[in-house]
Amino acid sequence: MWTAVQNVDIPIYYKRRIFEAADPDFAGTFAVDFVVPPYNADRDQSLPNRTAHYKESEFVSLGSNDEKPMLVCLHGLSGGSYEIYLRAVLQPLIENGWEGCVVNSRGCAMSPITTGVLYNARATWDVRQMVKWIRTKWPNRKLYGIGFSLGANILTNYVGEEGDECILEAAVVCSNPWTLDVANLALQRSWIGKEVYSKAMGSNMRKLFEDHMEQLKKNPRIDVEEVQKIKYLHEFDRALQGPTWGYPTEGAYYRDASSVDALFNIRIPFLSINAEDDPIAHLEAIPFEEFKQNPYTVLLTSSLGGHLSWFEIGGTRWFAKPASNFLMKIAERDTEIFKPNIVAGPTSKELGIAGKPPPFLPMRRKLRMSMDD
Question: Are 342 and 315 in contact (CB under 8 A)?
């Protein structure tokens, strides 16, 4: 709850560009906010504070051969580049010479929606396009990723989907809910979980839907009246996410979109920060055993910290320190030294077992997107 009510300010300035999605299966636009030096300008009321659109002449001039490290950020459920928890990590990195950008989920951070779909918990397509675009513009920069809450789940799925081909050098995820069906049931078990957190998140998503209703109601799969009646987050996912993406229930959506199995396919240094008292990214949903199976990954848990909070005296947030320190330490070194020496286990023949076990494919998913039917 402190995530919403604290008032510490961290001045980060952005310039925004609207990108057209390259994948026709996920047609639409998304907004990316690039960190820039402070500037003086009247507030554009159509954008978050300290955010302005790039002039065309500014945007076309982007790109260089510099070797600055660059951080790609993904925010939480209905947030955006303005979120204080996100700026808390960006600030120390920018002060140490890093560049950064935030990929806003479609419709978030006062960005437009141009098709009849929002985003979901495994919407990796926009960050994938953005990372590739950044690589073409700044070919010598080492790229890093950080995700928060829902953005943490998306980033984990992206890194797992990319596997050995991942362009990022390393990634950090904070308050990842990991096993979404487990987290959902845990959230509904307590009064504060359901009546405070789930209701607040459901209300935020309903407002996001209403803000973009003119576009979203064009989606024939969505029952507008049902979405407007929702009260809790799982009801929103049942009324909108399931029909939009072809899932029969919110449970099917949660199981398919969870990032827990993506852990097995991560091949870059990867840090997860979770609080064991988090009411949203619940302790029961944290994949302790899965982390033990991948030497590329590290799980850092604290007994206290809530959801994206970890407040210290003075209003600062503790999690920003391990997150930024991890990224800076990785950036100082050749990532080749972080590749673990994985020793193959005994063969089936050595174990006296006939044949091979069936392969486990951690990134095999159900979702196939087509708006034509």
Answer: no
Is 149 among the catalytic positions? yes
Q: Rounded distance, CA 290 to CA 293, Å? A: 5
To the query of whether residue 278 is one of the catalytic residues in this protein, the response is yes
- At 30-63, the pLDDT tens digits run 999 999 999 998 999 999 999 999 999 999 999 9
Identity of residue 264: F
Residue 223, token pair as written in the block: 């029952």
pLDDT value at position 300? 98
Alpha-carbon dihedral angle through residues 344, 347, 350, 351, given to the nearest 10 degrees = 100
Instruction: Indicate which residue of 75, 234, 282, 307 is catalytic.
Output: 307
Q: Are strands 99-103 and 29-36 parallel, antiparallel or unpaired?
A: antiparallel
Q: Which of 149, 258, 259, 272 is catalytic?
A: 149
Q: Measure CA 68 to chain center.
A: 23
Q: Which residue has the tokens 């994948």?
A: 23
Is this structure's pTM higher than 0.85? yes
Interacting residues of 287 by C-beta distance below 8 A, sequence separation 6+? 178, 179, 260, 263
Q: Flag residues of the chain having pLDDT under 70.
A: 1-7, 335-338, 341-360, 365-373
Q: What are the structure tokens assigned to 161, written together?
A: 């989907």
Among 181, 256, 261, 278, the active-site one is: 278
